[in-house]
Amino acid sequence: MKDYLDKVKFSFLFNGISSRELELALDCLRAEDMHFPKGMVIVKEGELCERFGLLISGQLQSTQYDYQGNRSIIQTIEPLQIFNENYCFVHEKSPVNIETVEDSHVLFLKSDIQGSTFPPACSFHRRLLNNLFIIQTHKNVELTQKLECMSKRTTREKLMTFLKLESLKQGAKEFDIRLDRQQLADYLGIERSAMSAELSRMVKEGLIRTRKFHFEII
């Protein structure tokens, strides 16, 4: 456990919880850490969620595929973030796949964190619930921002909305994103070729500068 304890204590899920309480919490949550190679589906769409995950290292994405096999990226999951907690708590099937973008180390937590498996002596229980509420609030904001991008009619409008939101998030007009071109197209629900052509036009018109993962709004 000590191999990952020093890392997961920095997750907001365990904010305000002491090192001793963290060990107790992980025991209550029946924590199990697992390593996965790049390009692996670790949770399948339609799979009953009996546990949720906390990413220790690497990168994950939640994805969906339509009947033609086109991929849509719902969310990118970074280290120390949790995933699939909503479906776990209500014992629902996952509506998304969870895929590894890089070699990833994941901590799975199997519990009804809302109360049924925590003994009354768990002093950290209320803090966990409060932290979860804050995490869900942030996720709702991110979902609203994605919906704002998806609601735009044209490829340019979707791109500019995404870039402006990312600029606000990072507090600068020049920034890097974690999505490559294909991932960005999948996130915005547009064809990569059409997106690349639009980015080139936006550069020529002096709206942006870009190179690989780097963007600057002019």
From TrEMBL:
Coiled coil: none annotated. The keyword Transcription applies. Keywords: DNA-binding, Kinase, Transcription, Transcription regulation, Transferase. Residues 13-85 form the Cyclic nucleotide-binding domain. The keyword Lipoprotein does not apply. InterPro entries: cNMP-bd_dom, cNMP-bd_dom_sf, HTH_CRP, RmlC-like_jellyroll, WH_DNA-bd_sf. GO terms for molecular function: DNA binding; kinase activity. It comes from the Bacteria. One of its GO terms (biological process) is regulation of DNA-templated transcription. PROSITE patterns: CNMP_BINDING_3, HTH_CRP_2. Residues 153-218 form the HTH crp-type domain. This is cAMP-binding domain of CRP or a regulatory subunit of cAMP-dependent protein kinases. It comes from Succinivibrio dextrinosolvens DSM 3072.
